[in-house]
Specification:
The chain is built from eight helices and four strands, in the order ααβββααβαααα. It has about 200 residues and is of the alpha+beta class. A four-stranded antiparallel beta sheet has the order 2-1-3-4. Helix 2 crosses helix 5.
């Protein structure tokens, strides 16, 4: 074994810092809600004493320097691969490159934070408008009646039933594919069965 020369300590102490970056702007609640409903999750890159680390969670870390959005079901394998590619003491730039490469390796699209928020904000407003259209057409009243009926049946049978808030979240989630496919301008038609079951 060669004698210890301190190179490992020097390498750890002399981490190259990337150019300072401003943290991402705070997202709107509506945009975040839409992203969550559509199945997206953030991957944050955080600077801890000059070393970049990845944070994969349902919320954006306040310490995030770089944020990307990805399909929530793909976060773990992409972050695991990015950590391997980034190495032991990556800079923010190294970690960002590693994350992009990991996503490419997994054939998964990363969406930059600002772009994701812009798109989600626009889609959220479109979803709200579609929801209002459904309310005016009587579909929401029909949804409310179906919810109350199913809740009464569940209670009569001694079973619990989802809260109205959960049911409404599921309804909004069910409307997203209609909006994505361009069906928002057509007739309002969707089945409540999938919302209340499962």
């Amino acid at each position: 074994m060669p004698p210890f020369d301190g190179a490992a300590l020097d390498l750890h102490a002399a981490v190259a810092r990337s150019a300072p970056r401003s943290p991402p702007s705070p997202p709107s609640k509506a945009a975040l809600s839409y992203l969550a409903l559509s199945g997206a999750a953030p991957i944050c890159i955080i600077d801890r004493d000059g070393i970049a680390t990845f944070r994969a969670a349902n919320k954006i870390s306040s310490a995030a320097i770089v944020v990307f959005w990805i399909d929530a079901t793909k976060v773990r394998p992409v972050v695991r691969r990015a950590r391997r590619l980034a190495g032991k003491c990556p800079t923010i730039d190294d970690a960002t490159r590693a994350l992009r490469e990991a996503a490419t390796d997994h054939r998964i699209a990363l969406t930059d934070h600002a772009i994701a928020l812009q798109r989600a904000g626009d889609a959220s407003r479109q979803l709200d408008a579609y929801f209002e259209k459904a309310r005016r057409s009587g579909k929401i009243a029909e949804f409310n009646r179906a919810f109350k009926l199913r809740r009464m049946v569940a209670t009569a049978n001694g079973r619990g039933f989802m809260s109205y808030k959960i049911a409404q979240m599921r309804l909004r989630r069910a409307l997203i594919p209609i909006l994505v496919s361009g069906g928002a301008d057509g007739a309002i038609s969707f089945s409540f069965a999938s919302i209340f079951e499962g």
